[in-house]
Design goal:
By secondary structure, the protein is mostly helical. The protein has one domain (3-241). Helices cover 71% and strands 2% of the residues. The protein has helices spanning 10-26, 36-93, 120-139, 150-202, 208-216, 226-241, and strands spanning 3-4, 222-223. The chain has a two-stranded antiparallel ribbon. The radius of gyration is 32 Å and the shape is rod-shaped. The chain starts with a strand and ends with a helix.
Length: 242
């Protein structure tokens, strides 16, 4: 015996709602297998749900398209921050800068090691420390680090910060769109459940096979369990063999 399965994706929900809506438009109210109350609720809800689906999809696609620009700016910022620290350490090893130089940048505990730059926050933190530290160091009369200069580091760092803030804004927009869509999914499920219950009740006096056939015209979905599918295939095979 097949069982009824409610939709569990936005695409399936929308199909169920549109199928019911089409029935509500083509069949007179006194012949319709679900109530006018449910039909009116469906009509007032469908556009909101479809618009929410579209809005979320647009935001998600736009965020995804822009993510490669963000990744590129992050990679470049990380490279320049890392290279600046490497050049600084090499200059200290050659004796061109004193060991105290690291204190300007908060690198006292790292000796010749590069601090972790694996996360967004790491890059933001160390980029800011390098920019501020180099400004203090030069102001104190020390010669600047070159190749890369702090000016080049700043350009890559600020480009990354701008991309970072923009990406966070896109993520927030997508999250808000998803939150709204999630709320409407619950309402969609309730409407579909109500309509399908009413449809099945309208055809409850019919034999099971005919009842399901009539209900399917309204978008109600029935599926067979795995063992039932196997039995059906076995029966079909036997019939073809006779």
């Amino acid at each position: 015996m097949p069982y009824r399965r409610l939709p569990n994706t936005d695409k399936a929900r929308l199909k169920a709602l549109k199928t019911a809506l089409a029935k509500g438009r083509e069949i007179p109210p006194f012949k319709l297998a679900f109530s006018q109350k449910s039909n009116q609720k469906l009509q007032s809800f469908l556009n909101s749900y479809e618009n929410a689906m579209s809005y979320y999809s647009q935001n998600y696609i736009f965020q995804t398209k822009k993510s490669w620009l963000y990744s590129s700016s992050m990679k470049k910022a990380k490279m320049y921050v890392s290279h600046f620290i490497q050049v600084l350490n090499l200059a200290i090893m050659r004796g061109e800068f004193s060991q105290d130089t690291r204190k300007f940048f908060g690198l006292d505990d790292y000796e010749s090691r590069i601090p972790s730059l694996n996360s967004e926050n790491d890059i933001i933190e160390w980029g800011e420390k390098l920019i501020k530290g180099e400004a203090k160091r030069v102001l104190a009369g020390n010669s600047p680090v070159t190749n890369p200069t702090i000016a080049l580091v700043r350009v890559r760092y600020e480009n990354f910060l701008e991309a970072h803030h923009y990406q966070k804004t896109l993520q927030k927009n997508t999250a808000r769109a998803l939150e709204k869509l999630t709320e409407l999914r619950t309402e969609a499920d309730n409407i579909i459940l109500q309509i399908w219950n009413e449809v099945e009740e309208s055809f409850s006096d019919l034999p099971d096979d005919l009842k399901r056939e009539k209900a399917q015209d309204y978008g109600v979905v029935y599926v067979y369990r795995k063992n039932e599918v196997s039995s059906l295939r076995f029966g079909e095979s036997r019939q073809r063999g006779t």
